[in-house]
Specification:
Largest sheet: 7 strands, mixed
Strand content: 5-15%
Distance between the termini: 35 Å
Oligomer: single chain
Bound molecules: pyridoxal-5'-phosphate
Number of helices: 17
Shape: globular
Structural class: alpha/beta
Radius of gyration: 24 Å
Number of strands: 13
Length: 503
């Protein structure tokens, strides 16, 4: 039987946001509603316990420090055992994104570099000049294939901990610059609804209002709709290359032109595409230019820990010139602890991760990235062609190597559940309901793509043959995506985070 929320869901969807929030507030005080939510919470908690804590029954839990310390070899054994359980899934190419290279020789190489540098901290540049060398050279290498040249000779940047930090910093830079130079007190950033949630985080942290423009039916952001929203509070416009959900690239050329004409910043989020698009272009693919060769682009985020094949924990944020980068820096001149200065969000930083990033760039080289880009785009094209042959499934938009699948005939989340039965770990998305796969080198191994296509055809057929029987997360995805009370969904997500931190 449907619960009352599900019963009235469609009707609630027509109400304006403020009324739904008000209703949600009223209902939360109602004892019957509260009891129903508690019951749902209990069910979700049980499900979370099973999926987030699979080791409860197999490994000893440590609630507090062991009194005497445990032998190193025993600790290593335990970590090895967990790694053995986790590795096959990503190693055999069943996972979307997440592990972008994954070849054992590459991993072993990065591990050896890490072992040599595990004590390094770029905050202590006097102690670890190697770390400063690695970071300066990482930035220079990435700038080198991101449009630094005659038209943009001053491209510079910093190494950060990941795409989110690169984005947070760029948004802080635009906020501070607009406040300093134009006195903007209520800053706004214009971007697509498909831009990464890291921009929402930046807005939340730094008091920026996001003006979100819905994409059209091809999942493309229309420049005229962006231009119409530029005003005196606009500090920057953002474009994704590509956007995470559907792998579609925003029209960076036109969007950055709008930013330039209006004297505001333009950030290309190339966390996913920064290492793919320039090299795809070099091997002759017709891909759009998204970097500093476009005069309006003033900053970029490019993730070394994704298609740069570095270990997790590094990204690069680039700026058109040093003046902009200086807006990112933090200094404290009166602290009794001494003169303090730091380029990014963190204080102490893992120099070993910068070392592995530097080593990855050097060992793969331009030729390696060109090869990877060619293969990824060929794989994307193969998958699009093969998916088109499966009745009942369609690819959203016109993506390159990150493909989102939707259906007008079956419940797409049930298809995803069925893919899960076959071992796949894919990303469930919403607005509209779909799931995606971000192709990586793991999917280029022999037989992996063919297996994906066969499993997709089987999963669609199963979802059609026995709807409502997938027995997985489909109902949760369905409800979380369509529930009008977004506050309840946010509460659920926070409870999930609580569950993660329960021993
Ligand atoms: C387009 C895009 N931007 C930003 C990010 C955030 O990167 P991270 O998870 O490294 O913080 C991602 C992550 O997938 C992304 O796909």
């Amino acid at each position: 039987m449907k619960n009352p929320i599900e019963k009235y869901e469609k009707l609630l969807g027509f109400l304006p946001g403020f009324l739904i929030r008000w209703l949600e507030g009223v209902l939360k005080k109602n004892p019957r509603f509260k009891a129903m939510i508690e019951e749902e919470d209990r069910k979700v908690a049980q499900m979370l316990e099973r999926s987030l804590k699979p080791y409860h029954s197999t490994f000893k839990r440590h609630h507090a420090l062991p009194e005497g310390g445990i032998e190193r070899e025993r600790i290593l054994e335990e970590i090895r055992a967990m790694q053995e359980l986790e590795r096959p899934k990503w190693e055999d190419g069943y996972v979307s994104g997440a592990i972008y290279h994954g070849d054992p020789l590459h991993i072993d190489f990065l591990n050896r570099v890490y072992a040599l540098q595990s004590q390094s901290n770029p905050l202590h540049s006097d102690l670890f000049p190697s770390a400063t060398k690695f970071e300066a050279e990482i930035v220079s290498m990435v700038a080198g294939f991101s449009g630094r040249g005659d038209q943009a000779p001053g491209v510079c940047g910093t190494v950060t901990s990941g795409g989110t930090e690169s984005i947070l910093l760029a948004m802080k830079v635009y906020r501070d610059r607009a406040r300093r130079t134009k006195g903007v007190r209520r800053p706004e950033v214009i971007l697509s609804t498909t831009a990464h949630a890291a921009f929402d985080k930046a807005a939340d942290y730094f008091g920026i209002k996001l003006i979100k423009i819905p994409v059209n039916q091809h999942f493309v952001l229309e420049p005229s709709r962006v231009e119409a929203r530029v005003n005196s509070r606009t500090i920057a416009i953002v474009g994704s290359a590509p956007a995470f959900p559907h792998g579609v690239i925003d029209p960076i050329d036109q969007l950055s032109g709008i930013a330039r004409r209006n004297g505001v910043g333009f950030h290309t989020d190339a966390c996913l595409g920064g290492f793919v698009l320039p090299f795809a272009e070099q091997v002759g693919f017709s891909v759009p230019i998204v970097d500093f060769r476009l005069p309006g682009v003033t900053s970029m985020s490019i993730d070394t820990h994704k298609y740069g094949f570095a270990a997790k924990g590094t990204s690069v944020v680039l700026y058109r010139d040093e003046e902009l980068r200086r807006e990112q820096y933090f200094t404290a001149t009166e602290w009794p602890g001494g003169l303090y200065f730091s380029p990014t969000l963190m204080g102490s930083r893992p120099g070993a991760l910068s070392a592995t990033c530097w080593a990855s760039l050097l060992s793969v080289g331009a030729e390696g990235y060109r090869k990877m880009a060619r293969k990824l785009l060929e794989a994307g094209s193969f998958l699009k062609t093969e998916a088109a042959k499966i009745p009942g499934i369609r690819v959203l938009g016109d993506p390159l190597w990150i493909l989102a699948f939707a259906s007008d005939e079956v419940d797409i989340y049930e298809v995803m559940d069925r893919m899960g039965e076959r071992g796949w770990n894919l990303n469930g998305l919403h607005h509209p309901p779909c799931f995606h796969i971000a192709l990586t080198l793991r999917h280029l191994e022999p037989g992996v793509l063919a297996r994906f296509v066969a499993d997709l055809a089987w999963s669609v057929a199963e979802a059609r043959r026995s709807p409502g029987k997938s027995g997985g997360m489909a109902p949760v995805y369905g409800m979380a995506s369509s529930l009008p009370f977004r506050g309840l969904v946010a509460d659920l997500l926070k409870k999930t985070l609580d569950a993660i931190y329960r021993v």
